[in-house]
Specification:
This protein is mainly α. It has one domain: Hypothetical Oxidoreductase Yiak, Chain: A, domain 1 (Orthogonal Bundle). 47% of the residues lie in helices and 8% in strands. Strand 1 and strand 2 form a beta hairpin. Helix 1 crosses helix 2.
Length: 117
């Protein structure tokens, strides 16, 4: 098959539509799409849009929740435990990073950790 080139807008539109089709909200579809395309633009193809079919397969077998209720279940001034409700890591990780960033503004030591159960 000959090589095909797609514009950012085409790739964004396609990827976004796939995330929407499996039930993601506009916000989560946008976040996930940007994460995958950003990886491709940085030359990290193994973590880019090539992974999209894998997320669809996970959704297909009910291993990923496309409408997660992401919550902070325990928090101290310098730590937080976040329940991602089996959501896409592409969505949960930015949420967790925002929590970590907010905590970093306090001037205290901090450590972030993500765990899948």
């Amino acid at each position: 098959m000959p090589e095909q080139l797609f514009s950012y807008q085409q790739l964004f539109g396609f990827t976004y539509s796939v995330f929407k089709a499996i039930g993601c909200s506009d916000e989560h579809a946008t976040t996930a799409t940007k994460a995958l395309i950003s990886a491709d633009l940085r030359g990290i193809d193994s973590h880019g849009v090539a992974r999209l079919s894998g997320y669809v397969r996970l959704w297909d077998v009910k291993r990923v929740n496309t409408t997660p209720a992401i919550t902070v279940i325990h928090e101290t001034p310098s730590t937080a435990v976040i329940d991602g409700d089996s959501g896409l890591g592409l969505v949960i990780a930015p949420f967790a990073m925002k929590v970590c960033y907010r905590k970093s503004q306090t001037g205290r030591n901090r450590l972030g950790e993500c765990s899948e159960q």
